[in-house]
UniProtKB/TrEMBL annotation:
SUPFAM superfamilies: HybD-like (SSF53163). It comes from Thermococcus chitonophagus. Its EC number is 3.4.-.-. It comes from the Archaea. PANTHER family: F420-NONREDUCING HYDROGENASE II (PTHR30302:SF7), HYDROGENASE 1 MATURATION PROTEASE (PTHR30302). GO terms for molecular function: endopeptidase activity; enzyme activator activity. This is Hydrogenase 3 maturation endopeptidase HyCI. NCBIfam families: hycI, hydrog_prot. Pfam families: HycI.
Length: 154
């Protein structure tokens, strides 16, 4: 999947950072969006810190009417710590409720019922999700790489 092409072809984009800053590398998504907010300002890009409950932001997402929704989260996929993947959020983790509340698959079904938007999940393999832990060096490097890429594209 060519993320640069997908972003450039989209007129309105929502970027949702998901995670919990108290659980080490689980902060990946929210650290990403907070740093991106400092560097990117565009009325056609909505950057949301969704914390652990992205479903609480459904109204804002739908109201913005994006063509593309990008979810950014720490994701276990048996990769090396700090490794990034791009996935289809509708194909992730089945229908069970996860630690973030509602899984992205169910969230996307709801969103698609209201707007016609493409969606991708950018996931980072965490090293540690220890309570009150720090973000690992591997995940910090992945954050720098992804922020640099997004600043270049946007």
């Amino acid at each position: 999947m060519d993320i640069e092409k997908l972003i450039k072809e989209s007129k309105r984009i929502v970027i949702c950072g998901i995670g919990n800053e108290l659980r080490g590398d689980d902060a990946f998504g929210i650290v990403f969006v907070e740093k991106l907010k400092e560097k990117v300002s565009n009325e056609n890009i909505l950057i949301l810190n969704c914390g652990p409950v992205p479903e609480s932001f459904l109204g804002k997402i739908i109201e913005f009417k994006p063509d593309l929704i990008i979810f950014v989260d720490a994701v276990h996929f048996n990769g090396k710590p700090g490794e990034l993947i791009i996935a289809d959020p509708e194909g992730t983790l089945g229908d069970t409720i996860s630690t973030h509340g509602m899984p992205l698959k169910i969230l996307m079904k709801f969103i698609k019922g209201h707007i016609n938007a493409k969606a991708i999940l950018i996931g980072c393999q965490p090293k540690s999700l220890e309570m009150f832990g720090e973000v690992s060096e591997e995940v910090k490097k992945a954050l720098e790489k992804l922020i640099s890429l997004f600043c270049e594209i946007l």
